[in-house]
Specification:
Length: 253
């Protein structure tokens, strides 16, 4: 019997491994890698942090950045950081390699999401974030690229682009094509690099609750503590009252 159980567990493990391998080979799910990946963390006060991970080649093709596409070329980190900075925006940049190609990882912090459109890497987008009635509305439209052609670079046609939003409060409306809100407050829009190079727009629309998830969580946590303390106080009072009541009784002989 034990050998049969072991055999079934091994079979399930092999099946799971095969499925993971298939997902990795197809570039889907958690194994998908993006040629351009823009990840935004938005706060209710309008401040924002944006992480961009992109190949040097695609930054040239989409954003026209003055970078050398040669994988063996030296990239000046300070000069690259300056490409992502501007008035009201600070950036840090790291360099990496994937599939023998150079990638740039930039983190940009801005005091207002609307300021991003004044920075060259994000100038292809228009942004709007404001309160309308009982909700906050976020709108972003990614327009056509403004890069330069690279005749010596051949795309495979399988490259993907992603825009990801980390939102500060509960989502009440969105137009993400997947229809799924990840982990309660994360949305994604994907596009093929072919469509992005052709200038097909990406339109992002989200309505949010006016209270942040953090403040709501803290309020619930505080309410739970107060309720627990009140329950404990009531229990102590009730036990003390019962003790006084029984202590006053005089036993009959």
């Amino acid at each position: 019997m034990l050998s049969g159980v072991v055999a079934r567990v091994r079979a399930w493990a092999l099946l799971l491994l095969a499925l993971c391998s298939m997902a990795g080979c197809s570039g889907a799910g958690v194994f998908r890698e993006y040629e351009y990946d823009e990840e935004m963390y938005l706060a209710l006060d309008g401040s924002v942090t944006v992480n961009v991970t992109a190949s040097v080649a695609v930054l040239i093709a989409l954003r026209g950045m003055d970078l050398d596409p040669d994988p063996s070329a030296r990239i000046d980190r300070d000069q690259t950081r300056a490409l992502f900075e501007g008035r009201g925006a600070r950036a840090t940049v790291n360099l990496a390699r994937r599939d023998l190609r150079r990638f740039v990882r930039a983190r940009v912090r801005a005091d207002s999401v609307e300021q991003l459109s004044q920075l060259a890497p994000f100038a292809w987008s228009t942004y709007r974030f404001e309160r309308r009635g009982d909700v906050f509305q976020f709108r972003q439209v990614v327009g056509p690229p403004s890069g330069r052609s690279q005749d010596d670079l051949q795309w495979t046609g399988r490259e993907m682009v992603r825009f990801r939003l980390h939102l500060p409060s509960e989502v009440v409306f969105h137009n993400s094509p997947s229809g799924t809100v990840l982990r309660g407050n994360i949305l994604e829009w994907e596009q093929s690099l072919t469509d992005r190079l052709a200038g097909q727009p990406v339109e992002m629309a989200v309505d949010l609750e006016p209270e942040s998830i953090l403040s709501t969580t803290l309020w619930l946590f505080g309410s739970t503590i107060v309720a627990a303390a009140a329950t404990l106080a009531f229990a102590v009072w009730w036990i003390a009252r019962q003790g006084r009541g029984s202590g006053g009784a005089v036993p009959r002989s």
